[in-house]
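Bug #77: duplicate submission created two jobs. Keeping one. Sequence:
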Amino acid sequence: MRKLIAANWKMNKGSEDAVQLVNELKELVKGNHNCDILICPPFTALHSVHEKIKNSNILLGAQNMHYEASGAFTGDISASMIKAAGCSYVILGHSERREFFHEDDMLINKKVHSALKSGLNPILCVGEMLEQREKGWTQQILEKQLSNGLHGISQEQMNKITIAYEPVWAISRGNANVKSATPEDAKKSHDFIRHVISDMLGHDIADSVRILYGGSMKPENAKELLSMPNIEGGLVGNASLDAKSFAEIVEAVR
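Kept job's structure:
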């Protein structure tokens, strides 16, 4: 399965800084055809970044969206708006949206359906908090988030969806002291995610779903993580804010 390395810039990089970063990145990865490369800047930088990556090997995505097509939703943005800005992907259900903005599975499911209806490829994020992991609830949390987040999704639609496993306890958010999950930890959860999807939509569909690891992937651990079975890429946060670091993660795909 072709791997995907996705950059989530979060609330970083205004338009000028975003263009500078993407120009550096383009040069570093221009000869790489081993994987799909995706960057997800803030909304305000989508258009300017899109103009710079046209005809390159870099894809564009957004970090979130509203489930309605339009309306009185001050401060929000719709699927059609981000698609018009050049996006082909959108991140949904990120742990920070769940934790800080109290987005629940049902809301995220609405967004998944809306994204698909608009022709976008959703990246559905799932993962457990530290307290949940310590209580032994990891599989219970993953199964709940997957079954609710993918409610009403057909086998055909599932072909456009990517899953990102985010062990929230392993996300650094800029804290260098936070360690990622071990490759074995990550593989165990990725295996379980594929098992849940198999139960929901069938073995063939589960085998074809791309599952990314999203817990502090960086140049130092990327090769080992990406070599594990059932880890088909990464959703990279802090390390994606430096062109050289992100390019090194891309280069780890062989």
